[in-house]
Write a structure and sequence with these properties.
The protein is α/β, with parallel strands linked by helices and 493 residues long. It folds into 3 domains: 17-64; 71-320, 2-Layer Sandwich (Endonuclease, Chain A), CATH 3.30.870; 328-492, Endonuclease Chain A (Endonuclease, Chain A, 2-Layer Sandwich). Helix content is 46%, strand content 18%. The chain is built from 20 helices and 17 strands. The longest helix is centred in the N-terminal third of the chain and has 22 residues, at 14-35.
Length: 493
């Protein structure tokens, strides 16, 4: 027996066979990358990683290289698809009263594209209030919860159990005591501390339903991509008002202070009107997908009651993520960029634009549009910091103005177009938000709200310094090398 084992282990070609197996696996995985129909940049980045790092490269690809929602989640999405479509189709009747000739043909075309790609129509009769101070958000949100009579629904990427978030927990407890149905849907990874905290237990004990979205478990890695994240921030109260924007349910005084980037700076919109129904449908769909209940219908909470007009804003709710066409939200964003005639202002904490978006921004600047991008001077991601550096140089060369915000980590995600149309919500200008995360964006076809948002962007500019193109070109060669290397990997971020 020993002689036989010795003969096996002394076989002179094991190294050669191992090399052949490694090379074969690399070729197979590289072929799978090529056949997966993705952007050229992403395809080349994955092929480079698979070939440059044997074994580890293709293991990484198999873990996070494909949009695997999992068979269970995909089945539930398919089961709910007809009900969601029916609910959204009922909203079309409200869009017939929109006077597009007042807003312009570009707005109508963007709204039609959004309806075609993401199914949600533009809806008139909304009232939007912009909140740029987190303390005021908490004050008003707690008042809204205390006024709830039927339901309070919460959906957040991060729920951080410190500071004023405990006041929200207390308000939900009071709502439960009044018989209000309260549901909390939070991301498994982003809200891990909350899900295992006393606050979560308090809510469960009070009668609230607390649900974990996109749970990450080691045994599910071969079947579900673990880094798909629920990045939406939505609150719906009595299906008559809603909140959305960039603020997670955190107290900025205590959140990620160790990152050394300063306090996070956010903005939220309080919505009343027909758009609340679209936000409610988004939440209800996500809730049903993540719950264990086997249902194929969304509850129709409005019944035959017409949605009330509360204001003059035309709003289109744009949900995005792996359950939708992967490139839909990026295509809509690029369409919005090409709408600009005079001015385009963008704020984003993580700015790593795709090649298509970079070309659109450069083209806008070159045709005479004043394009301004406001980003934090410091971000909490080293890889994003380096990857964005290479793009900044290309954009500066094209005439895009870039401002570095010094008042903390600017977390507001916004786009204003000619002070008439705006995009506002949770969407970052990076591959993760555009392709992997479940996001929510409001397209607001309203000069009044857009002007308010533009004023907020101007406040950010007052706390920023312009990036000088000449100084930027003089940065050290080593830094430029790291930035260009990170740029190659940017499609994978």
């Amino acid at each position: 027996m020993g002689t036989a084992l010795e003969a096996v282990f002394s076989f002179p070609y094991w190294g050669f066979i191992g090399l052949v197996l490694v090379l074969a696996s690399q070729v197979i995985v590289a072929g799978r990358v090529i056949m997966s129909r993705r952007s050229v940049g992403e395809t080349l980045a994955w092929i480079m990683l698979v070939l440059a790092i044997p074994v580890l490269g293709w293991i990484l690809y198999l873990l996070v290289g494909e949009l695997r929602l999992g068979s269970y989640r995909a089945k539930k999405i398919q089961q709910l698809a007809r009900s969601v479509k029916t609910r959204l189709n009922t909203l079309d009747q409200y869009g017939t009263s929109i006077l597009w000739q007042r807003l312009g043909p570009d707005c109508e075309q963007l709204a039609r594209a959004g309806r075609q790609m993401l199914q949600v129509p533009a809806l008139p009769g909304n009232k939007l209030e912009l909140f740029d101070q987190w303390q005021k958000v908490y004050d008003q949100l707690i008042q809204d919860i205390d006024s709830a009579q039927v339901n309070c629904d919460f959906q957040f990427y991060i729920w951080h159990p410190l500071g004023r978030t405990s006041e929200v927990v207390s308000a939900i407890e009071r709502a439960c005591e009044r018989g209000v149905t309260c549901r909390i849907l939070v991301d498994s990874l982003g809200s891990w501390p909350f899900l295992h905290s006393q606050d979560a237990q308090r809510l469960r004990d009070a009668g609230a339903d607390v649900l974990e979205a996109l749970p990450s478990r080691l045994w599910r890695l071969p079947f579900v991509r673990y880094d798909l994240r629920m990045h939406r921030k939505i609150v719906v109260i009595d299906d008559r008002l809603a909140w959305t924007g960039s603020l997670n349910l955190v107290d900025p005084r205590y959140f990620k202070r160790e990152a050394g980037v300063g306090q996070w700076v956010d903005a939220m919109a309080r919505v009343q009107g027909p758009a609340v129904e679209a936000l409610a449908i988004t939440f209800q769909t996500d809730w049903q997908i993540e719950s264990v209940a086997n249902v194929d219908q969304l509850p129709d909470l409005t019944g035959d009651q017409p949605l009330c007009d509360c204001g003059a804003s035309v709003v289109q709710v744009l949900p995005s993520g792996p359950a939708y066409s992967v490139e839909a939200i990026e295509q809509l964003l690029i369409t919005a960029v090409y709408m600009a005639r005079e001015e385009l202002v963008i704020t984003s904490p993580y700015f790593v634009p795709s090649e298509s978006l970079t070309m659109a921004l450069s083209s806008a600047a070159q045709r005479g549009v004043r394009v301004m991008v406001i980003v934090p001077a410091k971000v909490d991601s080293l890889l994003v910091r380096y990857a964005s550096g290479a793009f900044k140089g290309d954009l500066l060369d094209a005439g895009v103005q870039i401002a570095l915000f010094n008042g903390g980590l600017l977390h507001t995600k916004s786009v204003t177009i000619d002070r008439k149309t705006s995009l506002f919500g949770t969407l970052n200008m990076d591959p993760r938000s555009l392709r992997l995360n479940f996001e929510i964006t409001l397209a607001v076809y309203d000069p009044i709200f857009t002007s308010q948002l533009r004023q907020l962007q101007e406040q950010y500019l007052q706390q920023s310094e312009w990036l000088d193109a000449e100084q930027w070109r003089k940065r050290p060669i080593a830094l430029r090398f790291l930035e260009n290397l990170a740029q190659l990997l940017s499609p994978l971020l």
